[in-house]
Amino acid sequence: MASEIKIEDLVPMNDTQKVIEEVQKIVFMMYPGFDFDPVHKVFNDVLKLFRGEYPGYRQCTLQFHDLKHTMDCLMAMARLIHGAFVEEVIFPEQDVFLGLAAALMHDTGYIQTTDDKSGTGAQYTLTHVSRSIEFCNKYFSENKFSLYDSRVCHNCLKCTGLDMKTKDILFDSPEHEMLAKMVGTSDLLGQMADRTYLSKITFLFKEFKEGGVPGFRDEFELLQKTPGFWEFTRHRFATEMGGTDHFMRNHFRVRWGIDRDLYKEAIEGNIQYLKFLLEHHPTDYRRYLRRGGLLRKLDELEKQS
Hints:
The protein has 305 residues and is mainly alpha-helical. The protein contains twelve helices and no strands.
């Protein structure tokens, strides 16, 4: 029944081929003649980058800001663009490509170059947005995209920085401003709606610790502050991101016949379960974070260290 469907039931997000097939289907629903080859190229190059197959770069070793998160962001972005299209907010086809490309490249700043042997990409947590922009600019230049295209993506990536005020970004047009805000929204929706989000927070603490992010003495404090982060995120959606998250429900209604926002439902489910753990299992919460087998992996890593 549609009332029982959850977001993870729709597309197997760990299967990159299924992800890009669904993104292409969504795009073709809007633009039947869309040239999807450039999207495929960026998609395949980003896969190579995260897998350590892209010249000059090491494999991604992070468990939170990993390839799966990039897939989550890409899918959310495609869905938002479609949800906007349903409301007759229609972007030029090149802008659709740029929005999807930005979603794919938004965390490339975590990837280390082959000569960068110290630590993991987590050391760049506080600078990953500027590093992602640097990678994107280099990639666009090498692949003969225009400076204009590069600037649009550049501004989209800026909107993924949690301390960025969009009024400080010089957008070329209101349409590009909306596109950038959708990328920033997709980044947060994608990660927080992930069914393994709570388990991955334990890895996020390790990334924060290596990256020198202040404000969390241990992973439990990070978990404690996560419900507050959701409130911060909802406010950010409504203010800095221009309320673009509201397009999501349109997508699910038209694409799947489900008149609900499955992202919001998934996030609120995660937060409610987390609140339950914090209240009833503050000392053994890890026992109840079993999705995806991620905590077994964490236990193994901690035994090795």
